[in-house]
Amino acid sequence: xxxxxxxxxxxxxxxxxxxxxxxxxxxxxxxxxxxxxxxxxxxxxxxxxxxxxxxxxxxxxxxxxxxxxxxxxxxxxxxxxxxxxxxxxxxxxxxxxxxxxxxxxxxxxxxxxxxxxxxxxxxxxxxxxxxxxxxxxxxxxxxxxxxxxxxxxxxxxxxxxxxxxxxxxxxxxxxxxxxxxxxxxxxxxxxxxxxxxxxxxxxxxxxxxxxxxxxxxxxxxxxxxxxxxxxxxxxxxxxxxxxxxxxxxxxxxxxxxxxxxxxxxxxxxxxxxxxxxxxxxxxxxxxxxxxxxxxxxxxxxxxxxxxxxxxxxxxxxxxxxxxxxxxxxxxxxxxxxxxxxxxxxxxxxxxxxxxxxxxxxxxxxxxxxxxxxxxxxxxxxxxxxxxxxxxxxxxxxxxxxxxxxxxxxxxxxxxxxxx
Length: 419
Fold this sequence. Notes:
The chain contains 18 helices and 13 strands. By secondary structure, the protein is of the alpha/beta class. It has two domains: 180 residues, Glycogen Phosphorylase B (Rossmann fold, 3-Layer(aba) Sandwich); 153 residues, Glycogen Phosphorylase B (Rossmann fold). Helix 6 packs antiparallel against helix 10 and helix 8 packs across helix 10. The two termini are 27 Å apart. 41% of the residues are buried.
């Protein structure tokens, strides 16, 4: 969602984007007009395959993307010979471009070590890294903008091959995702990517401080650019309720980073006082089963609903039906979901340990671990619905001023620095 909003705003400002994803075939998405971010025009590097593709009619955009191999799960399309040769691609580049420092030499040696892994997600990163060589040599571009560790190796390879500037965009660190030590391979790929990049964009001061303190990245090349949320043509003047009573929502990945376990404890405390309230947990993740068991143990029954994964239309529907949104993240680099909720006039309670808390004023900000305080706020809002509605309306108006166009201007200024 961050890349979507960002790219639309960049296109609006006249920036041309060649979007590269790990697809089944060697394709890229040349985005030139604002609407291209929605239609995703595609070009095959192989002209014969492109002609074959043009002869096929796809019923929907989703079907077309599935044909290209853009899937919801990290299925890998890389073949056996490609997989075996990916380290050779890195070695070949190191040999060809021998003018590098000792630190750069270590970075490239590290890449061969830390990209090893049989997990699908690592194979997907290997796949994109291998294919970056051909994209770098084929496409005509001014700079490389890589998002998170998944694309840092590919971006590094493209920079090494072309000498073009590399911008590493840090949306979340492994410390955020794991809530602790995490995967050493990912930590090293994050460090190497940010070290090799010419500029590092962090989505909040919170993230920038972590990048400096944990990774010791030179603060001189860090730029802080907050995420945003474009309200667009959203009209939500009246709630389309699912339940008659007050409804409280958790929307996000059900994983340690997002603090869903704190949400269920808040629900348990609030329901003791207001049994007519309803709590909805929307999303999926590795903690889903654990929290389902916890809900059963606490006998929350149908007052705590697991909604599962929601598509965009379903997200919009549920946001227009709830009163309170809670983000109890343990470590949240930014957090766009609260802005989405606020755009619907939903009163937000957010973790102080989040980047979004740096840009909004009309939201309750609480330490993620302070479930007692959050429960007290929810109880107060339920007992004072007029104040809850007033806070939601103030938040709705505030979000309208947090647009991607301002963030895009700042990103373009970083591009200008590099060019």
